[in-house]
Write a structure and sequence with these properties.
The termini are close together. The chain has three helices and four strands, in the order βαββααβ. Strands 2-1-3-4 form a four-stranded mixed sheet. The chain is α/β, with parallel strands linked by helices. Helix 1 links the parallel strand 1 and strand 2.
Length: 117
């Protein structure tokens, strides 16, 4: 915990380096002081089949979902979201500058009562 999923369309301009991206996400999550390294789990998915808006090849997206257990304040969740968003903007800056690349982050809560490990 947290469970992180990073989805990127296959047409992004950056070289597909999932381990590097996951490490940047982990580093950022650790600096928040909310998590221990052993609890971080990140998967990176390259999306080959997608349609964005008018199906223009110049469009791409990067979406990160970070699922965390309940109990953290809205401020903590917002700060996590902002930090992760800025990391993604840095990592995918070429796509952001040269394409219509939508970058988004969702911080989702998982109920402790229904999360099993």
């Amino acid at each position: 915990m947290p469970q992180v999923t990073l989805e990127v369309t296959s047409n992004i301009l950056e070289t597909f380096t999932p381990a590097l991206w996951a490490q940047k996400i982990h580093d950022n999550l650790l600096t928040s002081g909310q998590f221990q390294i052993a609890d971080l789990k990140t998967r990176v998915l390259k999306i080959d089949d997608y349609v964005i808006a008018d199906n223009d090849d110049a469009r791409s997206f990067v979406h990160l979902t970070c699922a965390i257990l309940t109990g953290r304040s809205v401020d903590v969740r917002q700060n996590l979201g902002r930090k992760l968003y800025h990391v993604l903007c840095e990592v995918f800056s070429e796509s952001k500058q040269k394409q219509i690349c939508d970058i988004s982050v969702e911080i989702r809560e998982m109920e402790k009562e229904t999360y099993f490990k």
